[in-house]
Design goal:
- The complex is a heterotrimer of chains A (276), B (433) and C (77).
- Chain A is of the alpha+beta class and 276 residues long.
- Chain A has one domain: ApbE-like domains (T-fold), CATH 3.10.520.10.
- Helices cover 32% and strands 22% of the residues of chain A.
- Chain A is built from 7 helices and 14 strands.
- In chain A, helix 5 runs antiparallel to helix 6.
- The longest helix of chain A is centred in the first third of the chain and has 22 residues.
- Chain B is built from 1 helix and 23 strands.
- In chain B, strand 10 and strand 11 form a beta hairpin.
- The longest helix of chain B has 14 residues.
- Classes of the chains: A alpha+beta (276), B mainly beta (433), C mainly alpha (77).
- Chains in contact: A-B, A-C, B-C.
- The interface between A and C is small, with 10 and 6 residues.
Chain lengths: 276, 433, 77
C-alpha cells in the first residue's frame, strides 16, 4: 500500500494488542496481495491480461466490482475503475509536461466502464483496458481489517492505513480519538486539521504532492475519465466522515471529481467534510 | 468538535451507503458516525462546609443526565442540605453579656463583645429538572425547580434559548425565569421594626422574575470570551424574620432589640464578563462581575482559576476569588434609642460593607482501571467587614432614595461585620455510561 | 446613577464583543477548533462547581450570581 499503516487499540493488555495487530496486518496484506495492480499473481493481473476473454471472479471480487459499478452509476461515469490506464501518459512530478491531444484521445478509447461486460460472475473487458482498484482498495482494507479487529477484542480500535481511518467506538471514559490531517503544502500548527473521532470512517482525497502545472494552474493526480485530463480546480484536500471508510473514501473521491463544484456537491448531499 | 454525520437524506447517499453495506456485509456500515460518548451521565458531589464558630453544612448532590441520539437531553438533580450551627441575629455586640431569644423560643446568652448568634438546625431538599433540545442553531433549555426547607418553599421554572451564529463562533443566550416562593416563619411572622411580640400566622409570598441576555464569542483558536447581563425583580416578603436590629442607648450599648424590616421589592442587576484562554496544555479562566441593586448594594467579584494539567487525566486548578460589596441603604449597626425609626433597617451582615477572599484548589483525577472522574476541592474563605464605623460615619450610603431612608448613623466603634473563617471541601465523581 | 452606569457598561461590553465579528471570523477556521472542542474550554467549565459556589456566596453575600436565571430560592438570604 506504500503508506504507513497502524492500528490503535485502547487497552492495557499487551497480548490483546498484539493479537489485534496481527489480524489487522494479515487482512491488510491479504487485500493488498489480492487487489493490487502491481502484482502479477492475483485476480487483477488476470483480468488485465485476459485479452478480451471473460474472467470468472470469486465472491469478494464480485462484490467489489458490484460496488465499483454502483459508484459508476451514481457518479454519472466520473468514478470509473478503468480510468487507471490514463496514468501511462501523465507524469505527476510537479513539472509541466502534458500529453498531446492525440495521445489523450488514443488512451480514452481504452477507458470506460460502459465498455466492460460484468455479468454472471464473470468480467469481460476489451483488450488493452485495465481495471484499477486504487480508489477503493485502501478504504476497503481499512474496513475489513477493522471488522477482524472487532472480533478479536472489545476494546476501542482505530485503524489507520495511510490516512484512511476507521474507529469502532470512542476510547475509555468516552474520550474520542484525536486525529490530525496534515496539509503537506503548509507547515505549522495552523495547517493541521484536528478532529475528535468517536466512531466511523474518515478518508482524505486530493494530494498536494502529486500534481502537474499547466497554464499557471495546478492539476491534481486524479483523472477525469470523460476528458482524460486531471481534475482541475478541485480543493487541495477533502476529508470526509461517514459510517465506513469505504463510504468516506468514495464520497471524497466523488467530491474531488467535481472539481470546482466539490464543496457544493458535498453540501448538497449532506456530507460531513473538511477542506484544506 | 462534535462529529456527527447526519443520516442520508439524499438518493446518492442512500445508494452509496447501501452499496457500501453490501460490500462490507458488516454491522458497522449501517451505523452512525458519531462523537457521542454515551447516553447517560452521572454527577455526584458532596459539600462539607464549616464556619468557625458558626454554621456547618453537609450538602450531597446527585444528578443524572440522559442524552438521546438527536442531541436532546434530560436531567434530574437532587440536592440535600443538612445545616446546623449558629447564625448571627443582627444584634450589636455589646460590652456586657446579652441574652438573645431566637425565633423558636430558645434562649442563648452571648459573651461580651462577641457577635450574638442563635442556634438553628435545618434541612433542605431541592429537585431540579432540565430539558435541552437542540434544533439546528437554536437550542432551548427548559428548567423546573422545587425546593423545601422547614420554613421556606420554592417553585420555579425558566426557559433559556441559545442561538449559534457566524459558523458557531458566536452564541447568543436569552432567557427568563420565574420563581414563586413561600416563607412561613416558625412562630409566625413578626411585624417589622417591632419588639416581635405580635406575630401573624401563615405564609408570606415572594415572587421573583428574572431575565438574562448573554453573548459568547470565539476570539482566537485559544480564546473564548463572554458577557452576560442579568436582571432580577423580587416582590413580596424579603425580610429575614429571625434577625434583629439592636436599639442603642446614648453611649452605644445595646439595650433592646427590634425585628428587622426590609422593603417589599428589590431590583437586582448584574453583568458578568468571563474568559477562557487555552495555553499549551493549561487553561486560564477569568471572571469579573459587577452587581448593583436598588437597595444600595454594589459589588465587584473577581474570580481567577488556572487549570494545570498534570497528566492526560489528572489536573490541579488553583482558585482565587476576591469580593467587595457596599452596604445596603438601610443597613444599620444599631438604631439610636429615642430617635424616630427609619422605614427600613437591617443589621444582617450580608447586607453590610463586606470583603471576602477565597483561596483554594481542585484536584481532578481518575482511579486506575475505573471509569469516571473524581474531583477533590478544598477552599478557604475569609470574610470581613470594611472596617470600623467611627462616630458620625454612615458608610457607603448615597443618600435617600424613593423607598428607603438612609440608616441612622451608629456611634459604636465595633466592626459592623465580624470576620468569618470558612472552610469547604467538595468531593465529586462523574461518570458516563 | 450607579444603575445607569451599570447598564451603560453592560451595553458597551455587549457591543464591543458583538463587534469583534471581524477578528473571530478571520482567524478561526474549522480546522482550528481543536482546542475549543475540549471539554474544559467553556466559560463555565464545571456547572456543578458553579452551582455550589453560587449557593455558598448567595448565602453569605448580598449579590446573586451573574450567570443565568432559574434555580431556586432558599431561606438563606
Amino acid at each position: 500500500m506504500a503508506s504507513p499503516c497502524e492500528v490503535l487499540i485502547d487497552t492495557d493488555d499487551r497480548s490483546e494488542a498484539a493479537a489485534v495487530v496481527k489480524v489487522a496486518a494479515a487482512e491488510a496484506l491479504r487485500v493488498e496481495q489480492k487487489f493490487s495492480r502491481y502484482r502479477s499473481d492475483n485476480i487483477v493481473h488476470a483480468i488485465n491480461h485476459a485479452g478480451g476473454r471473460p474472467v470468472p471472479v470469486d465472491d469478494e471480487t464480485a462484490q467489489i466490482l458490484d460496488y465499483a459499478d454502483e459508484c459508476y452509476q451514481i457518479s454519472d461515469g466520473k468514478f470509473d475503475i478503468t480510468s487507471g490506464v490514463l496514468r501511462k501518459i501523465w507524469r505527476f512530478d510537479g513539472g509541466n509536461q502534458v500529453p498531446s491531444e492525440r495521445a489523450v484521445h488514443e488512451v480514452l478509447e481504452r477507458v470506460g466502464w460502459h465498455r466492460v461486460r460484468w455479468e454472471n460472475h464473470a468480467l469481460t473487458m476489451p483488450a488493452g483496458m485495465e481495471i484499477d482498484f486504487g480508489g477503493i482498495g485502501k478504504e476497503y482494507a481499512v474496513d475489513r481489517a477493522a471488522a477482524w479487529c472487532v472480533e478479536q477484542t472489545s476494546a476501542a480500535i482505530l485503524v489507520n492505513f495511510g490516512g484512511d481511518l476507521f474507529a469502532n467506538g470512542p476510547r475509555r471514559e468516552g474520550q474520542p480519538w484525536r486525529v490530525g490531517v496534515d496539509d503537506p503544502a503548509r507547515t505549522g500548527e495552523a495547517a493541521r486539521l484536528q478532529l475528535e473521532l468517536s466512531r466511523g470512517g474518515l478518508a482524505t482525497s486530493g494530494d498536494a504532492r502529486r500534481f502537474v502545472r499547466w497554464n499557471g494552474k495546478r492539476l491534481g493526480h486524479i483523472l477525469d475519465p470523460s476528458t482524460g485530463w486531471p481534475v482541475s480546480e478541485a480543493p487541495r484536500s477533502i476529508t470526509v466522515l461517514a459510517a465506513t471508510c469505504v463510504e468516506a473514501g468514495t464520497l471524497s473521491t466523488l467530491a474531488y471529481l467535481q472539481g470546482p463544484r466539490a464543496e457544493a456537491f458535498l453540501k448538497e448531499h449532506d456530507v460531513r467534510f473538511w477542506l484544506l | 468538535m462534535q462529529l456527527d454525520a447526519p443520516s442520508p437524506t439524499r438518493p446518492l447517499r442512500h445508494r452509496l451507503r447501501s452499496a457500501a453495506c453490501l460490500l462490507l456485509a458488516s454491522g458497522a456500515c449501517a451505523g452512525k458516525a458519531t462523537a457521542q460518548s454515551g447516553n447517560t451521565q452521572l454527577d455526584t458531589s458532596t459539600l462539607f462546609y464549616t464556619e468557625r464558630g458558626r454554621t456547618t453544612v453537609v450538602e450531597p448532590m446527585v444528578r443524572l443526565t440522559r442524552s438521546l441520539s438527536d442531541g436532546q437531553s434530560f436531567s434530574a438533580q437532587l440536592v440535600l442540605d443538612a445545616m446546623t450551627g449558629a447564625s448571627p441575629t443582627g444584634a450589636t455586640p455589646s460590652k456586657i453579656a446579652q441574652t438573645v431569644t431566637s425565633a423558636s423560643g430558645s434562649t442563648s446568652t452571648t459573651e461580651a463583645l462577641k457577635v450574638p448568634v442563635s442556634p438553628f438546625r435545618d434541612f433542605r431538599g431541592a429537585l431540579d429538572f432540565d430539558w435541552v433540545r437542540p434544533l439546528g442553531l437554536v437550542t432551548p433549555t427548559t428548567s423546573a425547580h422545587v425546593s423545601r426547607e422547614r420554613d421556606y418553599r420554592s417553585l420555579g421554572a425558566s426557559e433559556v434559548v441559545s442561538i449559534d451564529l457566524m459558523q458557531r463562533l458566536t452564541t447568543l443566550t436569552v432567557g427568563g425565569g420565574y420563581n414563586s416562593d413561600e416563607v412561613t416563619p416558625i412562630g409566625g411572622t413578626p411585624i417589622g421594626l417591632s419588639d416581635g411580640s405580635v406575630r401573624t400566622q401563615g405564609s408570606n409570598s415572594k415572587r421573583v422574575a428574572s431575565g438574562t441576555i448573554g453573548l459568547s464569542r470565539v476570539l482566537t483558536r485559544r480564546w473564548l470570551v463572554g458577557v452576560t447581563g442579568t436582571r432580577i425583580a423580587e416582590r413580596g416578603y424579603l425580610t429575614e424574620p429571625y434577625k434583629v436590629v439592636s436599639l442603642l442607648d446614648s453611649v452605644g450599648t445595646p439595650s433592646d432589640q427590634l425585628t428587622e424590616k426590609r422593603p417589599e421589592s428589590r431590583s437586582r442587576s448584574g453583568i458578568e464578563a468571563s474568559s477562557a484562554y487555552h495555553l499549551d496544555q493549561d487553561v486560564v479562566y477569568t471572571t469579573y462581575r459587577y452587581y448593583w441593586d436598588d437597595w444600595g448594594i454594589r459589588s465587584h467579584t473577581l474570580d481567577f482559576k488556572y487549570r494545570h494539567e498534570l497528566g492526560s487525566t489528572t489536573y490541579f486548578t488553583p482558585h482565587v476569588r476576591l469580593y467587595a460589596q457596599t452596604q445596603a441603604d438601610f443597613f444599620s449597626g444599631g438604631l439610636q434609642q429615642g430617635v424616630p425609626l427609619p422605614t427600613f433597617a437591617s443589621a444582617d451582615y450580608r447586607l453590610g460593607p463586606l470583603r471576602s477572599g477565597t483561596l483554594g484548589g481542585t484536584f481532578g483525577f481518575h482511579l486506575p482501571k475505573s471509569p469516571g472522574e473524581l474531583t477533590l476541592r478544598v477552599e478557604y474563605i475569609h470574610q470581613w467587614g470594611k472596617g470600623d464605623r467611627g462616630d458620625g460615619e454612615t458608610g457607603d450610603v448615597e443618600g435617600p432614595s424613593d423607598d428607603h431612608r438612609s440608616s441612622v448613623s451608629s456611634t459604636v466603634t465595633h466592626p459592623t461585620v465580624a470576620p468569618v473563617d470558612i472552610g469547604t471541601v467538595v468531593l465529586g465523581y462523574s461518570v458516563g455510561f | 446613577m450607579s444603575s445607569h452606569r451599570g447598564v451603560l457598561g453592560a451595553a458597551l461590553l455587549i457591543i464591543v464583543i458583538a463587534g469583534m465579528n471581524g477578528c473571530a471570523a478571520m482567524s478561526v477556521h474549522p480546522w482550528d477548533r481543536d482546542l475549543l472542542a475540549e471539554k474544559k474550554m467553556k466559560l463555565v467549565p464545571s456547572p456543578t462547581e458553579r452551582a455550589i459556589d453560587d449557593h455558598i456566596y448567595f448565602s453569605k453575600e448580598g449579590s446573586t450570581g451573574g450567570q443565568g436565571v432559574g434555580g431556586g430560592g432558599c431561606g438563606c438570604n
